């Protein structure tokens, strides 16, 4: 068990290596906020009332095409595009989730990919934002978004939140009520100002922000899809309320025309009602800006019509000005309401949206460039102070920020705006490249250490397995290992010295300690493999490694799995098993191969669900017949489990009908499904392993069917769609929903682990024998996946690369846990075996 324990510790620790290499936070601190030293367009004649506020309206989960492709869905917003507004598409980055999207809009900063784990719970943003720099902010909407900006602010008192309770987010109810709450609370705020002198004064000060977070579109999209009537109805409602909101504000501020508006979204939505990846429907969101400081619409030239995606839109006759999502923050902060740029912003001011002088635009871009360059300079100084072997970023090695600023300011003073803008844009581009350079500064060193760690582990675990279970030639005892020890000590000292000179964090030393430890364990091994022994295992070892590479391919194309099942279907014929067993094996494997050609992403399909029920019942019936034939009786509890499964299937079907008709989740159904899905059986009372195997299968079949939406039950595959959990809960709760989906995914593995433990017992194999053989070689896949981890691209690509490495890296941990669980589910000591 020593090797097993070392392997568990090693894999758990090395799992975090990708986050130290690929996903370290790029946030830097210590910069001074900068603002444009000129009157902001949205203030205009500041002396008049002194109010210049900004109204930011965010539609959660709104697709650009659904808003722009039809006039009747949003008539008021389309009239703005035609008369008063500048519009375009805001291109989001992955992950296309609520937290990263709102952070990009409000802070001008793209959080690293690992930040998606912070989503849907109160995690304060750890960097500067629009709200932070404003004089006062009022925010309305979801408790999933508003608190993280309030609690992350320097002064929380200047950010007020008006939120509904989390139980208000019920997928079985009309989601328009979520948006209605935001608009109603906004109306109430204006109404209260007539009786509250302090509030009235605050509302009439400058540099203030209203933030309305509208969750209804996202909720309706998840529940009914973006092509549904509910989704379109929600768009119409939002359009109507925006018109009313603008009218009320004009009246409240006596039509002073000092209000700027932006309508946008944090992410889009796929046709299946999901988001998160880099699908264009998820990354393209609408942006419409109008009011103080915003340009009026410009007619589109015939030869400038954009791609087919938008040329059929009614709005396509006007110029479409696309921007990146992070560009919204500098637009509304420095260029409209005159507050300082967020110190962590990497957005670039979109000139096409501004209705201001060329001088103001150039000064804004200069301030933009200074802010991003200061981030680069801060990161550079931090790395220079901690790295003895520091290598500077060459494109900016000789740039002095003060000289650069004075030079560009001189050009602006002489009216050379194009030249000054070109220099500022060049500095922005190089500063962003420099930030990326220092973000990946230690990649080569860390990747080398991790690679040696995995290779040395594979050698060590293989030799240890051969010592425990093999019969190798143990002639290495008298070998002189002094030279190997000296070389190992020298290389270890060099590696530790390099880490010390680079002022590396403690985890780097931990990563480095494993290849050092494994090296010395390897040279102490008693194994001495002779040439003839090595020659004898070359062919099977090559086939085995080829199989591992084949499995790597299966992570990217399911054809590999289908082809593998087809090849394995002939195995029973080669083993000369009974004809019935061989034919059954052949048919089962080929049916499984067919399943890999079905769609990966599943939508709810009642026919497939019912067919899955029939498959479970047919399998159970065949199992009972087989048990009756072999041991002449079966446990009555098998019949009870079948009845429970049938009853649960009927209630699930009734619940689906209620949810589809928007009748909500019946409370009785919810309790019955939950009760029937609970796993229960008396393990000790079922001594025959045939009965226990069938009962475990049926006990898991009930909750598995509850959590499926399509053909999963037919093949014990799984999907990640949230629709299935609505049969147990419709109130948005990420922890409960995530737990239910995870439980569903684990069910097939629980069953397999139980059967494998049974097979090991019947074959009288030593404990952990097969286990150690597998983990000695599976890290070939882990190492391949380690170099294939991505920190850019779509969220689907990034998330897939991370999950592939984690699944492979945690294989040893996963197998160990499953083995222990299988013993709990099916204790082997008390079972009666009948060996055929």
Automatic annotation (TrEMBL):
Keyword list, A-Z: Endoplasmic reticulum, Glycoprotein, GPI-anchor biosynthesis, Membrane, Transferase, Transmembrane, Transmembrane helix
Pfam families per the UniProt record, alphabetical: Phosphodiest (PF01663), PigN (PF04987)
Transmembrane segments: 444-463, 483-501, 533-552, 558-574, 579-597, 609-627, 634-651, 663-681, 693-711, 731-756, 768-789, 801-826
SUPFAM superfamilies: Alkaline phosphatase-like
One Gene Ontology term, aspect cellular component: endoplasmic reticulum membrane
GO molecular function, one term: mannose-ethanolamine phosphotransferase activity
Purpose: Ethanolamine phosphate transferase involved in glycosylphosphatidylinositol-anchor biosynthesis. Transfers ethanolamine phosphate to the first alpha-1,4-linked mannose of the glycosylphosphatidylinositol precursor of GPI-anchor.
Family designation: Belongs to the PIGG/PIGN/PIGO family. PIGN subfamily.
Identification of the protein by name: GPI ethanolamine phosphate transferase 1
InterPro entries to which the protein is assigned, alphabetical: Alkaline_phosphatase_core_sf, GPI_EtnP_transferase_1, GPI_EtnP_transferase_1_C, Phosphodiest/P_Trfase, PIGN_N
Topology relative to the membrane: Multi-pass membrane protein
PANTHER family tied to this protein: GPI ETHANOLAMINE PHOSPHATE TRANSFERASE 1, PHOSPHATIDYLINOSITOL GLYCAN, CLASS N
Domain of life assignment: Eukaryota
Subcellular location: Endoplasmic reticulum membrane
Native source species: Rozella allomycis (strain CSF55)
Record-level GO BP terms: GPI anchor biosynthetic process
Positions of the GPI ethanolamine phosphate transferase 1 C-terminal domain: 433-716, 718-794
Entry's EC annotation: 2.-.-.-
Pathway noted in the entry: Glycolipid biosynthesis; glycosylphosphatidylinositol-anchor biosynthesis
């Amino acid at each position: 068990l020593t090797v097993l324990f070392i392997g568990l510790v090693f894999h758990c620790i090395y799992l975090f290596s990708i986050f130290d290499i690929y996903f370290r936070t790029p946030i830097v601190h210590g910069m001074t906020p900068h603002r444009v030293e000129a009157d902001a367009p949205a203030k205009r004649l500041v002396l008049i009332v002194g109010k210049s506020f900004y109204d930011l309206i965010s539609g959660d989960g709104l697709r650009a095409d659904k808003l722009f492709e039809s006039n009747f869905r949003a008539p008021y917003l389309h009239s703005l595009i035609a008369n008063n507004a500048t519009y375009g598409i805001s291109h989001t980055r992955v992950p296309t989730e609520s937290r990263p999207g709102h952070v990009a809009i409000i802070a001008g900063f793209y959080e690293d990919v690992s930040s998606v784990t912070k989503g849907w719970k109160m995690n304060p943003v750890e960097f500067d934002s629009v709200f932070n720099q404003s004089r006062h902010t009022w925010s309305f909407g979801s408790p999933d978004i508003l608190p993280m900006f309030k609690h992350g602010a320097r002064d929380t008192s200047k950010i007020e939140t008006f939120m509904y309770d989390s139980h208000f987010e019920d997928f079985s109810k009309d989601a328009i009520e979520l948006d209605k709450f935001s608009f109603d609370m906004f109306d109430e705020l204006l109404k209260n100002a007539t009786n509250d002198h302090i509030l009235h004064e605050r509302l009439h000060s400058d540099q203030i922000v209203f933030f309305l977070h509208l969750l209804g579109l996202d909720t309706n999209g998840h529940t009914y899809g973006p092509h549904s009537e509910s989704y379109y109805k929600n768009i119409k409602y939002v359009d109507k309320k925006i018109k009313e909101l603008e009218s009320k504000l004009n009246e409240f501020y006596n039509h002073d025309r000092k209000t700027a508006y932006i309508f946008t979204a944090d992410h889009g939505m796929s046709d299946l009602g999901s988001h998160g990846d880099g699908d264009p429907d998820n990354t393209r969101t609408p942006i419409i800006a109008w009011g103080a400081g915003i340009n009026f619409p410009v007619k589109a030239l015939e030869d400038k019509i954009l791609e087919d995606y938008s040329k059929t839109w009614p709005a396509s006759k006007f110029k479409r000005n696309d921007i990146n999502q992070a560009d919204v923050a500098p637009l509304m902060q420095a260029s409209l309401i005159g507050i300082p740029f967020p110190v962590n912003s990497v957005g670039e001011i979109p000139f096409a949206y501004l209705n201001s002088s060329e001088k103001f635009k150039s000064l804004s871009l200069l301030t933009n460039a200074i802010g991003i360059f200061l981030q680069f300079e801060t990161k550079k100084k931090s790395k220079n102070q901690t790295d003895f072997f520091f290598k500077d970023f060459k494109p900016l090695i000789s740039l002095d920020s003060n000289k650069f600023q004075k030079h560009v300011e001189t050009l602006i003073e002489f009216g050379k705006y194009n030249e000054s803008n070109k220099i500022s844009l060049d500095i922005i581009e190089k500063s962003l490249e420099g930030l990326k350079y220092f973000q990946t500064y230690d990649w080569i060193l860390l990747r080398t250490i991790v690679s040696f760690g995995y290779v040395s582990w594979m050698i060590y675990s293989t030799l240890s397995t051969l010592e425990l279970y093999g019969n190798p030639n143990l002639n290495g005892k008298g070998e002189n290992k002094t030279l190997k020890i000296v070389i190992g000590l020298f290389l270890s000292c060099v590696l530790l010295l390099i880490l010390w000179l680079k002022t590396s964090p403690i985890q780097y030393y931990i990563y480095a300690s494993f290849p050092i430890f494994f090296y010395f364990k390897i040279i102490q091994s008693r194994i001495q493999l002779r040439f003839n022994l090595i020659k004898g295992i070359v062919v099977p070892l090559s086939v085995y490694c080829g199989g591992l590479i084949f499995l790597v391919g299966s992570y990217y194309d399911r054809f590999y799995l289908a082809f593998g099942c087809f090849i394995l279907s002939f195995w029973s014929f080669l083993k000369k098993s009974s004809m019935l067993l061989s034919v059954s094996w052949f048919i089962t494997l080929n049916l499984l191969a067919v399943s890999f050609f079905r769609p990966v992403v599943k939508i709810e399909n009642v026919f497939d669900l019912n067919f899955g029920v029939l498959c479970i019942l047919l399998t159970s019936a065949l199992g009972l017949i087989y048990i009756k034939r072999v041991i002449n009786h079966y446990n009555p509890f098998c019949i009870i489990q079948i009845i429970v499964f049938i009853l649960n299937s009927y209630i699930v079907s009734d619940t689906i009908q209620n949810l589809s008709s928007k009748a909500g989740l019946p409370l009785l159904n919810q309790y019955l499904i939950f009760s029937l899905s609970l796993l229960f059986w008396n393990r000790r009372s079922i001594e025959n392993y045939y009965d226990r195997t069938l009962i475990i299968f049926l006990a898991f079949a009930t909750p598995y069917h509850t959590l499926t939406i399509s053909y999963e039950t037919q093949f014990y595959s799984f999907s990640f769609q949230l629709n299935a959990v609505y049969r147990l809960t419709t109130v948005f709760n990420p922890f409960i929903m995530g737990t239910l989906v995870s439980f569903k995914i684990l069910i097939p593995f629980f069953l397999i682990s139980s059967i494998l433990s049974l097979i090991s017992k019947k074959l009288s194999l030593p404990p952990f024998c097969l286990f150690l053989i597998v983990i000695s070689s599976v890290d070939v896949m882990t190492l391949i996946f380690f170099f294939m981890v991505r920190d850019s691209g779509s969220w689907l690509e990034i998330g897939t690369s991370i999950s592939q490495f984690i699944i492979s890296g945690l294989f040893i941990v996963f197998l160990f846990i499953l083995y222990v669980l299988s013993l709990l589910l099916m204790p082997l000591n008390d079972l009666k075996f009948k060996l055929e």
